[in-house]
Amino acid sequence: MAHTASSSSPFTTRPSLDGTQIRRRVQRLRRLATLLDAAFTIPGTRVRWGLDTLIGALPVAGTAVMAIPSLYIIWEAYRMNVPGKIILRMLANVLVELLFDFVPVLGDLADTVYKANLRNIDLLERHFGMTVDVPSPPR
């Protein structure tokens, strides 16, 4: 069967979303990014790390596995009609982190400090004009 322009494909057809749907998607993606990049705190410090640091510590396989949710966030941005320029910046953020991941120890440190997924969510929120209520640190 020949592929026609009118046939449904996830690569050609992107849904039109209203503001509420976009907000919900971005909030869901922020929860995922937080789990990946900042779900846990190193006791006695303000340093946060996530599953990306933990699973990414496994040589090569950890890096490959953790690339999947990072690319999923970018896929969702594409599906929300985010401009290509922002998608490219998101890809660059993930690429920087992936390249560091191939260097033992330095890659784990980069995961903890760089937080590509949260950077990408920040790009989405800025694009959609969303503001995030960040709680004040305890005194």
Automatic annotation (TrEMBL):
Q: Which UniProt keywords apply?
A: Membrane, Transmembrane, Transmembrane helix
This protein's source sits in the domain of life called Bacteria
Indicate the transmembrane segments per the record. Answer: 55-75
User: What InterPro entries has UniProt attached to this entry?
Assistant: DUF4112
Does Transmembrane count among this protein's keywords? Answer: yes
Instruction: Output the Pfam families linked to this UniProt entry.
Output: DUF4112
Q: What is this protein called?
A: DUF4112 domain-containing protein
The species this protein was found in: Novacetimonas pomaceti
